[in-house]
Amino acid sequence: MKKSAVYTRTGDKGITGLVGGTRIKKSDSRIHLYGEVDELNSYIGLGISFLDKSFDKSLLQQIQSSLFDLGSNLACEKEKRSQFKLPQIKTSSIEKLESDIDQMDSQLIPLKHFILPGGSSAAAAFHVCRTVCRRIERQMVDFEEQNPGEVPENALQYMNRLSDYFFILSRYLNSSNQIEETQWIPEA
User: Fold this and answer.
1) What does R_g of the chain's alpha carbons equal in angstroms?
2) Contact (Cβ atoms closer than 8 angstroms) between residue 74 and residue 80
3) Quick check: 155 pLDDT over 90?
């Protein structure tokens, strides 16, 4: 019986390879960072599975593709990225997020209080995406401080805008389904 191509056994001792071939420990902060990006991508897939069939999922699928682009760049040393012609996050991707945020936000009642994450299954899933996105953003800042120039261009801005997008998307989904948001009212 032929061995599956899914497992290679090359990482069995806690070492993995970057795109450029460099071998590093799986505990390296770079591995954590692109692993978190992969986790976010999976949560987006979960959120998509909760959406109505009529919901236009094309932007969410573009986001998933952009996160694969980001992950591939993080998995490659900056000096080797051009050699592999890795796709970059474009300014137009950030602008598209901003446009969709503005469009959805214009249909929402302005917030006067913080809200608790939740509502519909889809909205709750995208609130999880928002928090994972913020975690990635924090880790990216730390990674850049430790490894100057390694965070791809536009990545921090994209992640910052993406978390805003997930927040507004969650609110929009709840509003569209007439699900009232729960305000956070601090206990006295």
Assistant:
1) 19
2) no
3) yes
DSSP label at 76?
A: S
Mean pLDDT of 61-73: 96
φ/ψ bin of 118: left (φ > 0), alpha (ψ from -120 to 50), beta (otherwise): left
Measured in whole angstroms, the distance separating CA 35 from the mean position of its chain's CA atoms is 11
**CB of 163 closer than 8 Å to CB of 133:** yes
- Asked if 30 contacts 143 with a C-beta cutoff of 8 angstroms, the reply is yes
Single-letter code of the amino acid located at 69: D
Strand, coil or helix: 16: strand
Alpha carbon distance 161, 69 (integer Å)? 17
Structure-token pair, residue 34: 């692109």
Q: What is the pLDDT of residue 10?
A: 66
Q: Give the ranges where the chain is alpha helix by DSSP (H).
A: 29-50, 58-74, 91-105, 121-146, 155-176
Least Cα distance to 122 among 35, 53, 36, 38 occurs for 53
Instruction: Please say if the pLDDT value at position 12 is more than 80.
Output: no
Asked whether the predicted pLDDT for residue 11 surpasses 80, the reply is: no
Q: Which domains does the chain have, with CATH numbers?
A: 16-21+31-176 (1.20.1200.10)
Q: What's at 143, amino acid-wise?
A: F
Per-residue pLDDT, 3: 59
CB 151 within 8 A of CB 143: yes
Sign of CA dihedral 167, 172, 174, 179: positive
